[in-house]
Input
Amino acid sequence: MNIDNNSFDLMQPSPVPILFIPFKNNEYECNNCGNLYSKTLKFEQKYCKNCLLKYKYTTGSNTYLDVHIIMTNNAQCIEHKATRNNFCTINIQEWCKYCSEISYFRQVFSDYLSFNNTKFFNYEVCDNLCSLHLSKRRPQYYQLSSGWVESILSNKSVLILYLPWWDNHDRCLVCPRELNYVQQESKSHCQKWCSHCFIIYIGCRYCLTTNIIFGITNQSQCKKCKRVSFFNIDIRNSIIWIPYSQIRNLKKIAEGGFSVIYKATWSVSSYPYVIDVAVKKLINSQDISKNVLNELKSLYQCNDGNIWIIDCYGITQDPVTKEYMLIMNYAEGGNLHNYLRKEFENIKWRKKLNILRDILSGLQTIHSKNYIHRDFHSGNLLLSHKYRNISSNWQIADLGLSRPTNNASSNDEVYGVIPYIAPEIFKGAAFSKESDIYSLGMIMWELTTSAPQNSATSVPVERVFSGGTDLIAAKKCSFKADTIRACMCLKSWQT
Output
């Protein structure tokens, strides 16, 4: 930003860390000295006068800050008597705690909304949120840049944005949740993150810049001074950690290739009673791997208080095997596949439509979060009676293979139940929302005929690729005339 020869690119990194500005603007006390924060005249940016005074005497006359200072008419200050008539300066060395006030720090963004359409000193911060322009001159901009860094959860890179300003917003820019410090004990307090979105915000206190990393990594480098910041996100601090001693009476109810499911009781310390839970032990998960975090991330992001996604209460660890275990809501009604096998003859069409409504609502929730399920079948649809205001509802579970839509690369390996997998997946296509819809179609067929795999006919591979017209030997639905809808469907089928 080349404005009044006060370019960001020309400002040198500070020789000492700038500790008088918080990294979260909702704080009241200085993390460095404990004094109460003061506020700038414009935009109410917080800063510590005590630490600013120490910083002033530590640094020289070089320009390290893009700051605007106004001298006030204070008769008690003899030192600056000749220059206090509303004199403006950008030199931090001329700041005096007795006769001057900080108007604003141009490098600090605390509340984006307060900058919109606000004119000050011939400048206007645009709705762009990251551009400034000088009236009657060509636009000038804070130059943003981006790059890619290696993720510790996968072999893929994640996006990083290099912001040439100090972003001390206290809430995530993607979701409304408050940001948490990565290391609470750190005096610098320049690392914060959103455990819901897995987005990390790293500030450089020597340059007042911010890196935003859209994924989990363990280090970040300032674009300006090249300093490297290391950090370690403890999974126990990002979600609810449940002591293993509170989980009792484990009884195995299912087992798959990646996990073992138990029914258990949870003695919640804050409740006078125990509750039934489902415990999912993740096989060979002694180390927090990308698969563990991916399932946690999927559950937390897709659930978000939604009744159509299974609840995850927290995580624990088997003290013997050291394998991690997810503690989830126990769906006492079982899965849809077993339910249809037992009750198909007794289920009326109105109830089938209600089941389908719950399933559609859950899948719509997942897709609205820009996720795909990738393992969508009737065994992952569970009947819960948790919510008292409704008799029952079906919930989507097992989000272990779920991925964001922008991370759905081609598949070297295909996992899932074959009848529910879209044909193009077997030819190397990537999982997508469309492949989830194919799986939904098979579930709808199962609601109609009780189980699609029971009616499947073995077909040679050559017939599949030859385009034979006799491949779909559809089994007619066994409709019962219990509702008008059933009669209409039967008539439509016959015609």
